[in-house]
Amino acid sequence: MEKTVHIDSQTGLVLEGGGMRGVFTCGVLDNFMDRGIRFPYVIGVSAGACNGLSYMSGQRGRAKYSNIDLLEQYQYIGFKHLLKKRNIMDFDLLFEDFPEHILPYDYETYFNSQARYVMVTSNCLTGEANYFEEKQDKKRLIDIVRASSSLPLMCPIAYVDNQPMLDGGIVDSIPLMRAYTDGYTRNVVILTRNRGYRKEHKDIRVPSFIYRKYPKMREALSKRCTVYNEQLEMVERMEDEGKIVVIRPQMPIVVGRIERDIHKLTDFYKEGYACADSFVFQ
Known about the structure:
Elements: E1 3-5, E2 11-15, H1 23-34, E3 41-45, H2 47-56, H3 62-74, H4 79-85, H5 91-102, H6 107-112, E4 116-123, E5 129-132, H7 138-148, E6 158-160, E7 163-167, H8 176-181, E8 186-190, H9 215-222, H10 224-240, E9 244-247, H11 262-276, E10 279-281
Parallel strand pairs: 1-10, 2-3, 2-8, 3-4, 8-9
Antiparallel strand pairs: 4-5, 4-7, 6-7
Helix pairs in contact: 1-2, 1-11, 3-11
């Protein structure tokens, strides 16, 4: 059954992360671009921040290419990268070669866009979420999205404005409340998990030798599961109350955070595209 969504000056789009599960979001956003659906405000975290950038520049198919075609060609995820560069993914390929040479990012279109775009990182010093907007400096833009995507333990600490940062999803996996803080009270949320999903892992105390210099980050990591589950409960409650619209996978998913199966990724992308078809935007 189709659902009608009205977009006005107070409507925001919130993009969850989820690593390679973000191909679902790629499908939704490509659907939006095919239908000319734009929002005055978009906020993305981790993979959502990466995929949202291509949406903001209007480069239909670019995020899919980076998540599926580029992966098939270069195999940029794997322990060989972890051993070689202390990073589970080849970030040099993803954040240097890809936007500059392989499929260049349209900075001009993005920088000239009237819509706001916010990217979320987790500050290692404070253990809190930081929210960035950048529409002038190419290098700073890439620094922000790189930091937002830097998975704890599997990627090196990244830096924005000389501040140590990691994946925004550690602290704010679904930045819906930030959208409200920024003045956007009618929000569409794209999730990469099915309704009813909760993290089963119990919170654990992170050992002191991990991120030794950053006790606030260890504390944030220790609470990550609880915070995420609380956000999921809030989203479902607000959805039931008719306060937000949620686009999510309909069935429990088989795509992992660092999934490398091209067929699974392609099917999940197609599911995202199809799910978006259930919504009419005016």
